[in-house]
Amino acid sequence: MCSRTKPRSSRTGRPRSTEADAAILEATRAALVELGWSKLTMGDVAGRAGVAKTTLYRRWANKNELVVDAVAVLFDELELPDLGSLQADIEHVVLQFAALLERPETKTALMAVVAESTRDAPLRERIRASIVDRQKRLVLTGRRRAQERGELPADRDPEAVDATDDLIFDVIAGAVVHRALVSAEPVDENWVARLSALLVGGLGAVAALG
Amino acid sequence: MCSRTKPRSSRTGRPRSTEADAAILEATRAALVELGWSKLTMGDVAGRAGVAKTTLYRRWANKNELVVDAVAVLFDELELPDLGSLQADIEHVVLQFAALLERPETKTALMAVVAESTRDAPLRERIRASIVDRQKRLVLTGRRRAQERGELPADRDPEAVDATDDLIFDVIAGAVVHRALVSAEPVDENWVARLSALLVGGLGAVAALG
DNA sequence: AGCCTTTCGCTACGGGTCGTAGCGTAACTC
DNA sequence: GAGTTACGCTACGACCCGTAGCGAAAGGCT
Questions:
Q1: What is the domain class of A72-207 according to CATH?
Q2: Is the model's pTM score more than 0.70?
């Protein structure tokens, strides 16, 4: 980020209103809660934010990118405190992620923008940078801690480690999303306990693959 | 299905054209491939199918339900041949499911209708009945076969069995979808081998929870 | 201060899609 | 043949999109 000669407001002229930025993103989340993704319109968001519609289009090219930015900040809440065991860490982060998916803003927006991203590479990259990578970092630190505790063996083949990290990430995030949005059933302690038991029990078998 | 007094074409009057049904669903899939979910319009589908727009609205209330029906038939391809071991069965069905998700019709449509279903209970039920349950059945038969082979212990607590079936379903389907659509990386033999190893290795730990 | 540049709110617009209504015609049942 | 329903077609109001043009506001630069 900020890699190309820092064109921050291009140095001259009237600067972008940061209050407008915040108001627009806040209005977008409010509109997502009330209307949902499909009925959200740019004009409605502009009205809520007390801003002209043209001001939205100066900042975001379309509804998809606006919604990604509006929802991305919610994923800053995700943290991974050290609870002393791999299983406890997993259960904590899964419950956190599930709580995030229960919020109406994310519930209606996340799948929608992912669906759009299948035909829009820039959008896919934006989602990856502002949402997906932020979650994936949790997997890396969780594994590192488990290795420091001796719950997992130290790294041997770095490629295998990366592949396993990718797998665990897709399994955890995918399972929670599928449970919450497709099966539409609660992510409660019972379910989380089973999922974490599956992961902790299965990680040894995966590591044995080398 | 057909539970309420079988109103099949209500007995009198001109019957619905089954050719039109097929043409519309086929046209919907073609439009999904060419245009994707967001740019697909009812008028365009009607034109492709050689049918008036009003004919579409007599059958489907909106774009969501039409697309669900158009995509649902693709999930009939999913089968679970007995390959002799739980791990082989898992790997086969995962590769099948991944191939289905690689098709542009399903890739663009599946996440979109799931996103819509978060605010549309009838749509959610339609997806469950015509797509989700069809996949879930594979998990049940896979488990049953593994038990018959002795790879998994016989049932004790039926509630625990149901909970584990639900978990396995969400983990497999969720992981594949997340890998294919969110991470946007290939579901290849390497990845599938790791996933199935994780599942087979972890199932014992889950069963121990009772 | 004055000039330049950019953003702002506002209005208006053409283009497109939605979902429905109304019509005359076609197809099937009794 | 009479009754009923589906069909194709056209037209329509309503809505949303994304942009253009305007004068005014808010900064930087000399």
A1: mainly alpha
A2: yes
Tokens representing B117 are: 């279903």
- Provide the positions of strand C that have an atom within 7 A of a protein CB: 4-12, 16-22, 26-30
Q: Which CATH number fits domain B72-208: 3.60.15.10, 3.40.50.1700, 3.30.450.40, 1.10.357.10?
A: 1.10.357.10
Structure confidence at residue B10 as a pLDDT band (50, 70, 90): low
Residue nearest to nucleotide C3 (CA to C1'): A13
Residue with tokens 């993103």: A25
**Residue A134 and residue A71: Cα distance in Å, rounded?**
13
Q: Which residues contact A154 (CB under 8 A, 6 or more apart)?
A: A147
B80-122 pLDDT, tens digit each: 999 999 999 999 999 999 999 999 999 999 999 999 999 999 9
Facing A164 at nearest CB: one of B171, B194, B200: B194
Domain-by-domain residue ranges, chain B?
A: 18-59, 72-208
Instruction: Enumerate the residues of chain A whose CB falls inside 8 A of the CB of residue B202.
Output: 197-203, 205
Phi and psi at residue B2, in whole multiples of 5°?
Answer: 55, 40
| Whole-number Å distance between alpha carbons of B207 and B27 | 46
Q: How many angstroms away from the CA of A172 is the closest CA of chain B? A: 7
CATH class of B18-59: mainly alpha
CATH 3.40.50.10740 fits A17-59, yes or no: no
